[in-house]
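Aim 2 progress update. The chain analyzed this quarter is reproduced below.
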Amino acid sequence: MLILHWKPPPPLPHSHAHLALDNSGRSHPAPEERYPLYYGDSIGFWDGPKLVIHTNQLMTRSMGRQQPSQSDQMETVEIWQKVRAGVIEADVWIYDPALYLEPWYLKRTYNQVPNPTKSVRIQYWNCNENPNNDVYKTPDGSTNYKDLTFTNKDDSKEPKR
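Predicted structure tokens:
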């Protein structure tokens, strides 16, 4: 089991601070044993210096705030590699035949944050523990936060009913 810690920008399906990745050589569960999971089932292997990740079993949901939806047919392939000191790139292909006519490709570059005092830590953020994370679907099909409470004024962008 390999645990990756990072905060990828949308639309990667792993828009959380870690990914539990089975790199033991096992396959995904047999089709008759699969069921949709919030973050899907991810397996990976090393191809030389590149980490290749395949994810399936994703559930139908929004990919995140201001992001498109995904169906339970979505699968992703990610190839992660160190391109030079302090820089990692991820090539990502998103396949979702229920929503897209062709694969959606994107490249993300991650730069190491200088941390000479070792004081910067990655904190896990559980959206369920924060009341400001109530999300609703907007009329244009995207999502937004409901009733933010960072200030004393009403920051809600939800249409009045």
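The CA atoms of residues 11 and 63 lie 6 Å apart. Residues 5-11, 13-17 have pLDDT under 50 and may be disordered. These observations will guide the mutagenesis experiments scheduled for the next reporting period.
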